[in-house]
Amino acid sequence: MFASHHCGKCGKHCMYCRNCIQMGKASECERIVLWKGAPFEQSIPPEPILQWEGKLSRPQQRASDALLTSIDKKNSILVHAVCGAGKTEILFHAIEKALRKELRVCIATPRRDVVQELAPRLKRAFPTTEIESLYGGSEDRLPHAHLTIATTHQLIRFREAFDVMVIDEVDAFPFSADDALQKTSQLARKKSSTLIYLSATPSRKIKTDEIVKIPARFHGHPLPVPETKWLGNWKKTLLKDKVDPILLRWLAGHPKALVFMPDIESMQAYSMLLNVPSVHSADPDRGEKVMAFREGKSKVLLTTTILERGVTFSGVEVAVVGAGDPVFTEAALVQIAGRVGRDPLKPAGNITFFHNGLTDAMVRAQRHIVLMNKEAVKLGYVKGILV
After folding, report:
1. φ and ψ at 250, to 5 degrees?
2. Which residues pair with 230 in a beta bridge?
3. Nearest of 203, 206, 205 to residue 195 by alpha carbon
């Protein structure tokens, strides 16, 4: 990933690295500046530190207890929890314990949307704690926050800074596919520190000292199991400026719908034909459109996989158009299905994979969810099961 060019700064033929070029060019003639000043010295936040009045479910409490122990042991732990298990709430008591011990905490996630969703929830739970959120375009610049919530790209700013490092959605792109980001997350934490991984679809490559599994959602209802429905050659229909009647009937029967598309071009064409908003990673108005959908100002939202994880919409139902496309891996489809039924007042809902031929990823995603439901029933975490 190294390249060279004539450098206008030093006037010589200069090497630079292309691997992290999106963070700004790092040329060999430039200095890397490391902070050598006073270490983190932040007093304990005023009491009460944790002001969350909720109650953990049995599987949540089991995971929370394991995290409390990991703070003392300074070991590594993976929490394998289904979508909607309440992973954020599981962290609360561990964060509180770390803050009481005057430890510096970081929660990192690959997606900016997840940072923006987590930050207000954590600020409500820890109102006396100094919390900063870091992502491209954020305005926070606290020198020594108790708690840092950041995209994994932002961890390049830190070196041996954190006593507790939480990597949320550890299997998500780009973190899962970028060795540099994974190394950066390791460099950002102290040599003697606690490392916590959170994921609903963890890779087998993840190696930790301990694994805690949560097969049930916090509200005790089973995960909605995806349906599959034949859609045929929907792209050919789209070339005629038409939307397949099968999908139109599904939309008519599901008034609050999140529709996942395999590519931006098809999504934008659907957006025009259906006269509904769409979002993707480079959309400058993404935040406003997502908020409008959350508040009910728009009833249908088209999206790429950018919203496959880390976002919650009450009462939403989901369609995946072209579910056989390679972009929809087993992990992606499990995460997408996990958008449905997260609200305890609306724990059920429809998730449909529209396809022109079943793929292994679709079949494995269905099986993954069915097996999690069966395990949750076996352990007594849920009373019934959807099949």
Report:
1. -65, -45
2. 355
3. 206
For residue 112, which amino acid is it?
A: R
> Rounded to whole angstroms, how far apart are CA atoms 97 and 168?
19
Answer yes or no: are the C-beta atoms of 262 and 387 closer than 8 Å: no
Residue 279's DSSP bridge partners are 303
Give Cα separations from 237 to 98, 241, 243, 253 (angstroms): 56, 7, 7, 21
Predicted pLDDT at 174: 67
Intervals of the chain under pLDDT 50: 385-387
Write down the pLDDT at residue 385.
46
Angstrom CA distances, 141 to 38, 43, 300, stand at 17, 19, 36
113 sits in which H/E element = helix 112-125
Residues 6+ apart with CB under 8 A from 194: 70, 71, 73, 74, 75, 76, 77, 98, 163, 164, 165
Return the sign of the alpha-carbon dihedral for residues 285, 291, 292, 294.
Answer: positive
| Strand partners of residue 106 | 148, 165
CA atoms within 13 A on the CB side of 110: 21
Report pTM. Answer: 0.85
Phi-psi domain of 94 (left: phi exceeds 0; alpha: psi -120 through 50; beta: other) = alpha
- Cβ neighbour number for residue 153 with a 10 Å cutoff: 22
Q: Which helix (H) or strand (E) holds 105?
A: strand 105-109
Element (H, E) at 355: strand 351-355
Radius of gyration of the chain (CA): 22
Report the pLDDT value the prediction gives residue 387, as an integer from 0 to 100.
38
The answer to whether residues 262 and 231 touch, using CB atoms and an 8 Å cutoff, is no
- Phi, psi for 180 (deg, rounded to 5): -65, -40
CB 290 within 8 A of CB 301: yes
In sequence order, which residues have a C-beta less than 8 Å from that of residue 204 and are 6 or more positions away?
none
DSSP string, 250-288: HHHH-SSEEEE-SSHHHHHHHHHHHT--EE-TT-TTHHH
The one-letter code for the residue type at 168 is D
> Phi and psi (nearest 5°) for 211?
-130, 130
